[in-house]
Structures are given as C-alpha cells and as structure tokens.
Amino acid sequence: AKLNYLGVSYGTYIGAIYADLFPDHVGRVVLDSAMDPSKRSGGEIRAEQITFLEGALRQYVEHCQAQDGCPLTGSTDEAVAQLAAFVDGLDKNPLTAPDSDATVNTQDATVIIQRLAVAQPDWEALTAMLTPAMTNRDGTLMVKAKQGSNKSSTMPVEAAAYIANSEIMFAAVICNDDPDTGGTASDWDAQAAAEKKTYPFFGGTSSAMDAYCQGWGHRGKTPPQETRAKGSDPILVVGIKGDIQTLYSWAQSLAGQLDNGHLLTVEGYGHGAFGTNSCASTAITGFLVNGTMPAEGTTCAAESPPAAADPQPAADGGAEG
Asked: Where do Low complexity bias regions lie (predicted)?
C-alpha cells in the first residue's frame, strides 16, 4: 500500500520523516510550506527566522524613509533602533485609542509589525499606523490591527481554548523533536545579548526554546538529519517566498535533499499555499488526484495580499489573522 498525503507546515515534517523511513510506501505526497528536518526545530530555525524578519524590516525602513512623513529618522540602523526602543516601551506605556478599551503593548506591536513589514503591499499601511503612534501616541490604527488579528472573542469556547493552548502544545512537540544542546542560563543570556546587537528589533529569542525545553526536562534523542526518501515516488514540495513561519529556503533545501523531490514556488506572502493561492491549489490538486507533477521550475504568481492587512481609518480590518 502507498500513502497519498498532503501535509502543511509541521505536517511537512511528519510527511518528510515518513517518506524517509518508508520510501516504498510513498504515493502522491505534497509537503506545503515545508520545514527542513535537517535543522533543529527550536533555536536553529528561530535564528533563521530572525535573520529573515530583520532583513525584511530593514527593507521596509529604507522604503519608509524615502517617503514624506516617515516617523523613522537617521540611518537605517538608527531608525531600526528607534523603532525597537518605541516598541519596547509599550509594556510600560501602552498605546490606546479613544473609541476602544483595548491597548497595544510590546508583544502586540511586535506581532503587527512582523506581519506587515514582510509584505511589501502592506508597507504603506504600516507607515500609516506608525506615524500617529510614534508622533502623537495615537494608537487608533494599531488597536484596530490588534482587534482584527484577535478573533477569539467571537469564536466558540473550544476554538478559543485551542488557540490559547496552541503555543504550549507546539512547544511540547518541539522539545520532543530536538535533543538537548546542553546550554546553561548564562549561555542563553549571552547568546540573546549578542543576537540583540545584530538584530535589534527581532533578535534575542532564538535560545528561548532551548531554555524552555531544558527546564521542562523532556528532549528528543535523535539529532536532525537530511531527509532522502531514497527510491520513493516523486514528492511535491511547496514554498512561499514571503512565508515567515516556514522560510522559502527550507522548502528549497528539502526539495534538494529528497531523492525525488520537486519544488513548486509561490510568490507572495502567507503560510500554506493550498486553498490560498489558486495556481498552487490547482497544481497540488492535479498531482494528488491525477499524479501530474508541475513542470520543473514552475512558479505561481502572487495573488491578493492578506485581506486584513489594510488598516485604513474607515476600515474594520487590521493585521492578517
């Protein structure tokens, strides 16, 4: 028997490991928004995400400073540091809006900026939020963005509880995937400080999962290794260039590792191409249903940006949910 399988995000890790263990049982397998099993799921992938995010933020800052009215001043380094200092101060002095009881703290602002800075179509919206927030401490648009990305108040209790616990559940999975690195608290503090110097906005968190897992006391036994699936049927790997959760470079790496891997590239942003990009969805469906592999080098064009990432004053939406 052969397994036909569509795995998205962490499901790609499961699918890749299965394919490597049982290549003769691989049927039509699609790994969408792929992880790279050769990398440590905790600190290593977070460090790469930080590098990607900080680079995207710097591109946004350079664009912002080329426009009239940008609230960020000085060199690119100075502007990033200025933004980081502003956001870091929001825990003590959160942003507010006149028509809402909601506030925006450091974590809220970081999430909003992360979502918008990586997507060039959203840069103007990000500047529209930051300008009043940084010049007049007017948090109207940032509060709107926070409310747009936090829909738990309208969800069933069971769904809201799942979201509230999802980070803890995922941490348990990561801890049991990765072996202990043997670090200490002083090691992690030093790593965080050095990382923060290089990446002042997003840096300082890559060692957090190692610390969490060591404190919990449950770690995996098998070191990460490349995934070959030697002799398997063709496997379709899908990567989105602007994906901040599973980087496009990981999809490239996995497709290259697999003995019979084929890469489908999707331009644009988001996480999970199936069901969100019509070109990719058609290609994936064609492979799963008919066994038709997209031509080598196929790239799907970007489609509409995330619908909730346009926080204009008259709009109801906010950052991508």
From this structure: 301-321
